[in-house]
Design goal:
This protein is of the alpha+beta class. The protein is built from 13 helices and eleven strands. Helix 9 packs antiparallel against helix 10. The chain is globular and about 75 Å long.
């Protein structure tokens, strides 16, 4: 019988440290980032990580979940991760609380402001920065004289703290932070190479320059020549004269250019229903090729982001896709597609496949202001290589091949 299900957000240190704990000790716990009906029924705050065990047992909060997961590990396999006595265990809990509450509650808001996810406020940002550096000084004071945070062996205090520090190193703190705190630098290099991580931090590098908020450029207003005043017309006999306050009748709402193609033989609604409710590989994809794809009415397009070298964290790349999809909403009736983020933090890219009404991609995509940030390649649906690519974009269950190299899919979104 399974020990339970852990709902996670893969890019969050609060989650991925638990994910690696489960993998390292080979615990029989299912990992998922799919918030299903059971999740919503048990966790009204809608936050991860969240654990659902047998007989309805549930837990939230990363420290509590870690404590339960460690209880599933035989004591002779713990290797000192929970300390050697009650005092060390209490000290471990102290660092877990410090990093979970004080550190992350400073670094995460800084990141959200720098990334433009929430409005930037300099006063708040400075306060968060001061708080983060206060915590860093606490760690540095300890690590000036000791190899690890608790005792002289690696403990879960080091594991969890390194996970949370990595978020700052990849975003708002970067390499300058490590230069400022040499003790933390040495400690992070040591802890990140521990077997516990199963290679998660292999090739890890701190961001060269910290991520900072950049105010959007203000567009210059275009100067326009005022239109000449309309000549007054004499009122027709027995009709009231029009007043100056009368507004002209609203112009009819322009139709989407693809509406001129008329209704297709196979509307998208049925395909979207099948995709959403059936097994993707087993049922939905075969249905797509048999019932939906008609090369006379639809075209297939490979869509690639042009500026992959500017991408950083994978969840930020996925948010970029989400924003693009939101701006494509005017074309929902005329296309369906999936885009994925492949690779890892600071080395990832965006690609995807779309089914588009008609034979031209421009009318469908130019409703989004940023559509020119993407490259569009028409695909031949009769070729097996095209089908293989499209199938994988719809299923996300196999690596993406980029320049002859296979890259794992980290995340993705569906446009429907």
């Amino acid at each position: 019988m399974s020990a339970g299900t852990l709902y996670i957000l893969k890019v969050s240190p609060r989650s991925f440290v638990l994910e690696d704990l489960i993998k390292h000790f080979k615990l029989d716990v299912k990992l998922t980032d799919d918030k299903d009906e059971k999740y919503h029924a048990k966790f009204p705050l809608d936050k991860t990580p969240a654990f659902l065990g047998p007989k309805g047992y549930s837990l939230t909060e990363t420290i509590a979940i870690a404590s339960y997961l460690f209880s599933l590990v035989p004591k002779d396999q713990l290797g000192g991760l929970l300390g050697k006595n009650a005092q060390q265990y209490a000290s471990i809990l102290q660092y877990l609380s410090l990093m979970n509450q004080e550190w992350l509650e400073a670094v995460v808001p800084m990141f959200y402001m720098a990334a433009g996810k929430v409005p930037f406020n300099k006063k708040n940002n400075d306060e968060y920065s001061n708080k983060a550096h206060t915590v860093a000084k606490i760690l540095e004071s300890r690590l000036n004289d000791f190899t690890y945070l608790v005792g002289e062996r690696l403990t879960y205090a080091d594991i969890f703290s390194a996970a949370t520090v990595s978020l700052g190193l990849q975003s708002v703190l970067g390499a300058p932070f490590l230069k400022q705190y040499p003790g933390i630098n040495r400690w992070f290099k040591t802890v990140s190479q521990a077997p516990f991580w199963e290679g998660r931090f292999k090739g890890f590098e701190a961001r060269a320059e910290p991520l900072v908020f950049t105010p959007p450029k203000k567009e210059k207003k275009k100067e326009t020549t005022p239109a000449p005043a309309a000549a007054k017309k004499e009122a027709a006999p027995k009709k009231a004269a029009a007043t100056e306050d009368e507004e002209p009748a609203a112009a009819p709402k322009p139709k989407h250019p693809l509406e001129a193609l008329g209704k297709p033989k196979a509307p998208l609604d049925e395909w979207k229903r099948v995709y959403s409710n059936e097994e993707t590989r087993e049922t939905a994809i075969p249905w797509f090729w048999k019932n939906q794809y008609d090369p006379e009415e639809w075209s297939l397009w490979k869509v690639d982001y042009k500026y992959n070298d500017e991408l950083t964290l994978t969840f930020m790349s996925n948010n970029l896709v989400g924003g693009f999809f939101n701006r494509l909403s005017a074309s929902t009736k005329y296309m369906f597609g999936c885009m994925v983020v492949y690779g890892e933090n600071n080395n990832n890219g965006i690609t995807g496949a779309f089914l588009v009404r008609g034979q031209d991609y421009v009318p469908a995509f130019d409703v989004a202001p940023d559509w020119e940030s993407y490259e569009f390649t028409k695909l031949d649906g009769s070729k097996e290589e095209t089908k293989k690519f499209v199938d994988n974009m719809f299923a996300w269950d196999e690596p993406v091949e980029v320049n002859g190299e296979k890259r794992e899919i980290a995340d993705g979104k569906v446009f429907k």
